[in-house]
Amino acid sequence: MNGCNINPIDLELTRDALASSTLNHGLKVLGDQWTVAILLGAFLGWRRFDEWQGQLAIPRQTLSQRLKTLVDMGVLRQRPYQERPVRMAYHLTQHGLALYGPVLMIWAWERRWGARAGALPQKLVHRSCGHRFRPVMACGRCGERAGPDTLTFTLAPNPELLPPAQDTARSARMSTDAQPMGLGLRVDRWALLILSAVYLGCRYFDQLAQVLQIVPSVLTRRLGNLVEDGLLLPQPDLQDGRRTVYRLTPASRDLFPYVMAFAHWADQHFGQAGSIRPTHKACGMPFVPSIQCSACHSEVSPHDVTYT
User: Fold this and answer.
1) DSSP letter at 145?
2) What DSSP string runs through 184-204?
3) Could you tell me if residue 114 is inside a domain?
4) Within 10 Å of residue 78's Cβ, how many Cβ atoms?
5) Residue 41 and residue 79: Cα distance in Å, rounded?
6) Domain that holds residue 218
7) CB-based contacts of 135: which residues, under 8 Å, 6+ apart?
8) Are 163 and 299 in contact (CB under 8 A)?
9) Number of domains the chain is built from
10) What are phi and psi of 152, to 5 degrees?
11) 93 is a domain residue
12) pLDDT at 166
């Protein structure tokens, strides 16, 4: 999908739908470098404070704050593993385990495009079928593979999650110094929101600036980073050579399953109907992402996968 299936694009509607999306609000709490790295470590079997600190070289206070946030969100729970002095281990809850799909898509993306491939599992094996596999996103209703060209979107802003305009503008300015999410490139919350706007069909600078409420100087810098990292391709507009069209690349298309899987998790976490509602073209049903084994095409779960 190089363009939105809403024609012409309603920029105000797209702005409000993206701002009030559970994706946006989920990325506010789980979209920074350290939180993503902690979650990746949890799925790799890290349980203790010192493990995360040793592996990530994260400041102790920062690690304490991020772990507390994840516990408060119900993603992690604490259990004592030593009595004197009392030391706590952190375990994924059922709510946290539900993030396995997005985590698998992060792994898959970084194995192909990122800079930390050597630090991630080199081989995933699906116990159920016994085959090495790569995670793929499919429609949970009809089982067909899904990607950015296979979905249409209905936009329905959620007034309960719609932030004041001044808060949106302030967060965009603050994001200029945001740290990457640990995906190997300069991919953070605002980079993902820019890409999400492009997925929805906002391909011009003025469209992106209006939809995301980002000041031009910040958007220029961020678009430059995305182009440099191979996540957007700028091309002259065939109808007006003075304008630049920003198109998806193979790398940004491969990030689409992560965005969709995380957005679905955020819908469940916030208990809200998403303001960006996808429909699968092939079956005509509301799209529910299913992360499946590429070998047997069944959905994978954390307890059914081994890795090296």
Assistant:
1) B
2) SSS--HHHHHHHHHHHTT--S
3) yes
4) 12
5) 17
6) 11-30+100-307
7) 101, 104, 105, 107, 108, 124, 291, 292, 293, 294, 300
8) no
9) 1
10) -115, 160
11) no
12) 44
